[in-house]
Amino acid sequence: MKQIHPEKALNLAASLCSKKEYCSKAIREKLQNWELPEKDISQIMDFLIRHQFIDDRRYARIYAEDKFRFNHWGKQKITRMLRQKGIPGEIITEALSGIAPAAYAENCLEILRQKLRTLPPEEPYKTKGKLMRFALGKGFDYDTLRRSSLKIIPTGEIRDRWETDYKSTVMNMVMGEAPTFDEIIAELEVLNEKINRM
Description:
This protein has helices at about 5-20, 25-35, 40-50, 55-70, 75-85, 90-95, 100-115, 125-135, 140-145, 155-175, 180-195. The protein is mostly helical. α4 (about 55-70) runs antiparallel to α5. The longest helix has 18 residues, at about 155-175.
């Protein structure tokens, strides 16, 4: 790649950083790809950091919040990805501290509920194994999984929506007798207990 003049490189880097969040490692790599001398890279990085175009704390906080909220990642996966981006451990710890414990546990349970709906009926221990592997792959740890007993039966508004959807399905698509919604919930409660006893 053709070397870029330092002033142009600074303007390009500042423009990039004003459009979205970048960590310092990503911007340093861009500057290196532009074949700038290390002295110029250091001066540009210093300028960008001093003028808050780059802030690894801000980047880590936003990254952790987004990956938790939208991708439903657990803390281990977020940590692993931030480390790959060169974010120091103490900044990662600080960023993860912004995730409320109750919201974290609920997020874990929600991804397990969603996954359970995609699994075929089989022995409870096999189901639990698949759910555990799925949650671990999303970055949740064993301690969170142990503390958060799986609750596959929703409550409140979500349960009401399930019931409405089930009744509509029975009315429009099922011929003959079908179990009531309460009977299905009772069966799910039995399965829930079996899974959590393992």
